[in-house]
Design a protein that fits this description.
By secondary structure, the protein is α/β, with parallel strands linked by helices. It has ten helices and 17 strands.
Length: 332
């Protein structure tokens, strides 16, 4: 459970909600180019949120990574509050959302005991766990599916027929920490022997002989439009998002490669989390679908179907790609 001192930024009570939830923003540098601007925006957002005060000492804390504090706290505050109540532990008297701007910051929060459990996609979780010694324990189901795949797509009439054909071309990834829009397809490309080179985002994409240039589109819709209009040769997206967002463009696009499946999202416990709390969390999260109150928590938790223990084979597959994930993120 999280105990805060003078380094606590704020606990923000929103319009009569209690027990309250808080989130911590520690020196947010989410993007290299706009780091100082992002820091100022984060701090201004905190100052504008009403009724801020110091966090409760014995709250259950859930960590998440992002750069939209208002959106994150609105999404997860009701969830962590209800999960904390369902634990029925006398030492837990509330729930907090603790927000970090990037992977190293989340790792520090876990190591310092300021986050009890962390919720994210499995590939960023691999990096956080590497830095913090935390444990990946549960996976999230959505629409009755526990896993998803990522796609690399091109224009239907493109002459590119396989991953090797991306040599000398330009591909658009969604953003740096996206599992489906960057990490998973990039793993496939690097395993295929492609040499990737970053390109300036604001300049017209330039082809590099002998390498695959890449940039970040900052959105799935942008990726689809840029490929459709020929600004880039290929884009990346999850299969589910591709079918949902391509709409009328679907007949103009072609799937070039589909990756192996990975869990949608995972729950990670910090090292040193008391066994009593760990057991209660496991029991509560895996049993949510068995009660009316639990089903409401699942609905609010981004329309989750259920949580179940992360299968050994899924964990083994993730561990096998851990070195390349750390390399891509510059953490090896």
């Amino acid at each position: 459970m999280m105990r805060r001192g003078l380094d606590t930024h704020a606990l923000c009570q929103r319009e009569g909600r209690k027990p309250e939830a808080s989130f911590s923003l520690l020196n947010p540098l989410f993007r290299r180019v706009k780091g100082e601007t992002m820091r100022l925006l984060f701090l201004l957002t905190l100052l504008l949120l009403p009724d801020c005060r110091i966090a409760d000492a014995n709250s259950l804390t859930m960590g998440t990574i992002g750069n939209s504090p208002v959106e994150e706290i609105r999404r997860f505050t009701p969830v962590i509050r209800k999960i904390a109540a369902l634990l029925q532990l006398p030492e837990i008297d509330g729930g907090e959302v603790v927000m970090a701007a990037d992977i190293p910051q989340m790792a520090e929060l876990l190591k310092n005991g300021k986050v009890d459990f962390y919720y994210d996609s499995p590939l960023p979780s691999l990096a956080v766990n590497h830095l913090a010694g935390s444990e990946m324990v549960l996976r999230r189901w959505k629409h009755d599916h526990p896993e998803y795949t990522s796609l690399i797509f091109v224009k239907k009439e493109s002459t590119i027929q396989d991953l090797a054909g991306l040599n000398g071309e330009v591909i658009g990834f969604k953003d740096e920490f996206s599992s489906s829009g960057h990490l998973l397809p990039r793993i496939a490309m690097e395993e295929a022997g492609l040499r990737l080179a970053p390109l300036p985002e604001r300049a017209p994409p330039a082809r590099i002989p002998g390498q695959t240039g890449y940039l970040f589109t900052r959105g799935n819709e942008n990726s689809i439009v840029w490929v459709s209009f020929g600004r880039i040769a290929a884009g990346t997206i999850s299969r589910e998002e591709f079918l949902a967002k391509s709409k009328g463009d679907l007949d103009q696009l072609r799937i070039l490669h589909e990756t192996f499946p990975i869990p949608r999202q995972v729950i990670n416990f910090r090292s040193g989390l008391p066994d009593r709390v760990k057991s209660a969390l496991m029991r509560t999260l895996t049993g949510l679908e068995e009660s009316t109150a639990g089903k409401e928590v699942l609905r609010q938790f981004e329309k989750t179907t259920r949580f179940d223990p992360l299968p050994r084979e899924a964990m083994s597959r993730l561990e096998s790609i851990k070195p390349i994930v750390l390399k891509i993120l510059g953490l090896s």
